């Protein structure tokens, strides 16, 4: 069943991300033959237990590939496009891919500290159990994107379009949302302490118990002083 939610202003919606379309068969990637190179195209390959951490390429096309226990830490892949791909137990820490796109991609139990996807697009993407602390999403656009049980502490969503994003069971402590578009963005059972940019949260959908935890941050953002002393 498709899950849909509408923001207060009526412009934001969320739908369940479409699943990646797997290939009928996979060929095992062999390095250096299948190393990622600028303007290269890679289809129906299994990158299992490979080291791609030294990758520095632009305008790469990656389609129907599966990454398992792959190391892409510190890679630079600007203007790269991943379509119908799976990432499992991978190391994507400090990977930078500005101006890139993820389309029908699923990432699970992967280390993604410092992952940067600025000025990029995400459509039909699921992150499950990923460590995404200090990740950067400035000016990124989210369309049917779901974060499940992810560590997003101090993530930066400045100027991002989150109208098609859902966060479930995530730790967003200290995350920044200044100037973000939030109408229809959903937050369920999340840790929201120390959130920045709360004045941009108009139209966001927050579970009641989460909103209670946000009370102090909202009050501070609105300049409200809270008096905890009993009436005289």
UniProtKB/TrEMBL annotation:
Segments of this protein annotated with the region Disordered: 1-27
Gene3D superfamilies from the entry?
Answer: E3 ubiquitin-protein ligase SopA
Q: Could you tell me which InterPro entries the record lists for this protein?
A: 5peptide_repeat, PA_immunity-related
Q: Kindly give the SUPFAM superfamilies that the UniProt entry links to this protein.
A: Pentapeptide repeat-like
Name of the protein: Pentapeptide repeat-containing protein
- Pfam families membership: Pentapeptide_4
